[in-house]
UniProtKB/TrEMBL annotation:
Coiled coil start-end: none
Organism: Modestobacter versicolor
Biological process (GO), any one: photosynthesis, light reaction
Span of domain PRC-barrel: 7-71
GO-annotated cellular components: plasma membrane light-harvesting complex
Protein name: Photosystem reaction center subunit H
Domain DUF2382 residues, every copy: 158-269
Region (Disordered): 135-161
Domain of life: Bacteria
UniProt biased composition (Polar residues): 150-159
Gene3D superfamilies reported in the protein's UniProt record: Photosynthetic Reaction Center, subunit H, domain 2
Pfam family, one: PRC
């Protein structure tokens, strides 16, 4: 059984079905106008939680900040669509929802705990008697004027909240780099000096110095004299020598990146119920 003390923990919590599958977040809690007991809750369903579906709190339980209802997920998602923005369930809407969920009929009329439906002077709309509007001033046990249905009243002001972005950074692996050594072949051309011997004929006249060598041997004869010629040829040899050292290193580069997200914020407006002379600040 869900009590009024559970309301603050229910609103904004996750709702799950009887199998533990997530239904969505609880948006609003509706109270019975006569007993003040929580009877209905709206759960954000559909794509991105853009629609709210009513689910009865009868036999629902709260544990660990999670609302568990005794229905299957498909049953909740296919419930009749009722406008949750109106802040109040009419008897006809309540009867339709009870028939759909197959549970007994409750007392007619339910008020959204997050919206106080007022008429004329501060008070609340009582739908237990058709067409009757209670216009008496409703001063609750906290001493503030108005019918507080969203939870315990703390003072006479309403708190407006909004979401703010908290952007940080997370280090993730962006890629990998590695060194790989392989062999390529290329042609190298270079010039090297080489030398060779050539034959040169030298003639000298007969003198007193060489007359002896000239007369050594027969006066007339046939002779042959041979000289070995030498020449240099290029010789190619290969030698592997180290030329440089290569390694991988990292450096940090900082750049600006724009982050865009959607945040929600609450807006507060006054429902004057036809009163045009109201002070605004």
């Amino acid at each position: 059984m869900i009590s009024q003390q559970d309301i603050t923990s229910i609103i904004g919590s996750n709702a799950v079905d009887n199998d533990g599958d997530k239904l969505g977040k609880v948006g609003q809690v509706y109270l019975d106008d006569q007993t003040g007991r929580p009877e209905w809750a709206t759960v954000s369903t559909g794509l991105f939680g853009t629609s709210e579906t009513f689910v009865p709190l009868t036999d629902a339980t709260v544990s660990g900040g999670t609302l568990r209802v005794p229905y299957e997920k498909a049953k909740v998602k296919d419930a009749p669509r009722v406008d949750a923005d109106q802040g109040h369930l009419s008897p006809a809407e309540e009867e339709e929802l009870y028939r759909y969920y197959g549970i007994g009929t409750g007392t007619a009329g339910y008020t959204d705990t997050t919206t106080d439906t007022t008429t004329g002077t501060a008070g609340y709309t009582d739908t237990t008697t058709a067409g009757y509007t209670d216009t008496t001033t409703d001063t609750n046990r906290h001493g503030t004027v108005g019918h507080d249905t969203s939870g315990p009243t703390t003072d006479s002001a309403m708190t407006r909240s909004e979401e703010q972005l908290r952007v940080g950074t997370q280090q993730v692996e962006a890629g990998r780099a590695r060194l790989r050594k392989f062999i390529v072949t290329e042609n190298v051309t270079t010039t090297v000096p080489v030398s060779h011997e050539e034959v040169r004929i030298e003639r000298e006249p007969i003198t007193d110095a060489n007359i002896g060598d000239a007369l050594d041997g027969p006066a007339i004869s046939e002779e042959e004299h041979e000289v070995v010629l030498h020449a240099e040829r290029p010789v190619v040899a290969k030698e592997a020598v180290p030329v440089e050292r290569v390694r991988l290193d990292t450096q940090v580069v900082t750049e600006q990146e724009t982050v865009t997200d959607t945040v929600r914020k609450e807006q507060i407006e006054a429902d004057t119920d036809g009163i045009t002379d109201i002070n605004r600040r």
